Amino acid sequence: MKTGRTIRGRNSASTRALAFAFVAGLILGLALPASAQKNSNFGTVNLQANKFESLSVTAAPALVNFNLVAAGGIAVGSVPVTITTSWVLFPFRTATTYAYFVSAASALTNGAGSNINSSQVLGSVNGGPMTTFTGVSPFSAAASLQIFSTFIFFNIFGSSTDTLNLEINTTGFRLPAGTYSGLLVIQAQAI
């Protein structure tokens, strides 16, 4: 039994010591002078976000078919080409879209020496008159047709969708039978 009292006594003494320490800490904590808020120095991080100029063109469909007239005449393209020009540009520039052939002498060729030149290919932009691909552009000296042009002022970002109907006129020009193929390039420039 004495052993139990000794243990109880120790527990009682340690409980009292703990209570005393708690009360002393509380009194000392209350007795300490109040301190004001303290802020550290500050670090800075510079932020920079860039949005670069862009100018893009899409054209669809990727293929237009023509049934050339045997005795010469006008062959109409199977579908119109839809051309979308999109831009994000600085103001005070002009964005222009062109359709062109790389070679005026051989806009379409059969690969055996017979060619259809760009003056025999015509295009109608947005229902306008049919015009030959003989214009000048930054991309081709004499095989171009202007599709779209706009001055960039308040419209620093935007898009334009245009249609291009195509014809091939072989009137007075005899072509041998065969498959003639060529590439019409659509490209825009901002200056």
List keywords for this structure.
16% helix; six-stranded antiparallel beta sheet; Immunoglobulin-like; 191 residues; alpha+beta; three-stranded antiparallel beta sheet
Describe the structure.
- This protein has 191 residues and is of the alpha+beta class.
- The chain folds into two domains: 1-35; 54-190, Immunoglobulin-like, CATH 2.60.40.
- 16% of the residues lie in helices and 34% in strands.
- The chain contains one helix and eleven strands; from the N terminus they run αβββββββββββ.
- A hairpin with a 5-residue loop joins strand 7 (121-125) and strand 8 (131-132).
- The longest helix has 30 residues, at 2-31.
- Domain module count: 2
Shape: rod-shaped
Low-confidence stretches: none
Number of helices: 1
For the record, what CATH class of the largest domain applies?
Answer: Mainly Beta
- Helix percentage: 10-25%
Which H/E pattern describes the elements?
A: HEEEEEEEEEEE
Instruction: Briefly note the structural class of the backbone.
Output: alpha+beta
Mean model confidence by pLDDT = 90
CATH architecture of the largest domain: Sandwich
State Rg. Answer: 41 Å
Question: What is the CA–CA distance across the termini?
Answer: 105 Å
The number of strands is 11
Can you tell me the CATH topology of the largest domain? Immunoglobulin-like
Strand content: 25-35%
Largest beta-sheet details:
6 strands, antiparallel
